[in-house]
Specification:
elongated, two-stranded antiparallel sheet, 32% strand
């Protein structure tokens, strides 16, 4: 009787290995025939025109958005929240796939800037971009260019270099729409 049970145990183990082999072959075939492109960008660019129009009409300040950056800049984040101190955010992946964003709000700059820069601090340095003076903030994750004007604080921040931040800051144009 012990011999029959031992035989069944070996058959069960053998069946398990056969099943595993079939599964591995099927997985290999699926991998070969399902298209995958490691070089393709998984990030889908967003069209932010509708949100920009909403922000233009609702914000009590001139909403800034870039003009002429080029197609290699991909918009990835866009939002306008009136209930959150009229906060406008437009984020991009730059040509080097670094995150760069413009943030605007009527919130107190002492609270707002550290919030959107993930705790960056004012370095005491300035940078002139397009004839406008920006404060340089440096942080553990994001650096930023900051300026306040017209009742709003504008923060150009991200993981990119100050040169890239300045490139976005220099492309910003007022986008204030007429209220209907």
């Amino acid at each position: 009787m012990v011999g029959v049970a031992g035989m069944r145990g070996r058959q069960t183990v053998r069946g398990m290995f056969q099943s595993l082999a079939v599964i591995m072959v099927a997985a290999g075939v699926m991998y070969l025939f399902i298209p995958h492109d490691e070089k393709a960008s998984p990030v889908q660019a967003k069209d932010y025109r509708v949100e920009l129009l909403t922000a233009q009409r609702a914000a009590p300040y001139p909403v800034l958005a870039p003009e002429g950056l080029g197609e290699e800049w991909k918009a990835t984040v866009v939002s306008y929240r009136r209930e959150d101190h009229d906060a406008w955010r437009l984020g991009f992946l730059d040509p080097d796939t670094q995150y760069v964003a413009v943030n605007q709000s009527t919130e107190d700059p002492a609270k707002y800037v550290p919030e959107v820069t993930l705790q960056a601090k004012n370095s005491g340095k300035t940078q002139t971009v397009g004839g406008q003076v920006w404060q340089r903030w440096e942080g553990p994750k994001y650096d930023a260019l900051v300026r306040s004007e017209g009742g709003a604080t504008t923060v150009v921040t991200g993981t990119a270099s100050f040169d890239r931040l300045a490139q976005l800051a220099g492309a910003l144009q007022p986008q204030k729409a007429q209220k209907a």
